[in-house]
Amino acid sequence: MFVFSCCFSATKTLIFRRSVINLDSDRAPEIVQADDLFFGGTMNSKKLLLTVVIVLISGGFFDVISQTRIRFARGRTSASVSGTLGGGASRSYVLGARRGQVFSGNISSKNGCVKFTEGATSSSFITEPGDNYVRITNYCRTQTSFIMTVSINFGSD
Predict the structure, then answer these.
(1) Are 79 and 114 in contact (CB under 8 A)?
(2) What's the distance, CA 154 to chain centroid?
(3) Nearby residues of 118 by Cβ (< 8 Å), 6 or more positions away
(4) What is the pLDDT of residues 62-93, one digit of tens each?
(5) What does pTM read for this prediction?
(6) The pairing of beta strand 30-39 with beta strand 14-22
(7) Which end of the chain is more exposed for a tag (fewer CB within 10 A), N or C?
């Protein structure tokens, strides 16, 4: 979940903070990423509105709308996705599953730049019914191509 907040500092600098909050049901909510953006000078209403729009667009606010759905071919439990990510960019994927299935994913990229947002090139978790979300990030400064392979299987229980 993204949370945006802003305030003025004592030096009349506008500070926006974009926080990514983990709402894991087993634990209390925690901030897993926070980015501060600073804008100096006095703010009139037009400048403030323009600043808010720029921050929302550049901060990934609309990424929720542009999620890519991963669909499995009939009878298949795995799929591969390839693409490129700009330096520092992130992309979200959504895939449907039943409760208790196991999601597994692996990413390969040049120099290991593209990783799941947790910072690893592999990820696994027990799914919830319906849509499940995966986010990847390019931790390098340059555009990088990647291949991500994901699978959904029933656990061994």
Answers:
(1) no
(2) 25
(3) none
(4) 444 458 999 999 989 999 999 999 999 999 99
(5) 0.59
(6) antiparallel
(7) C
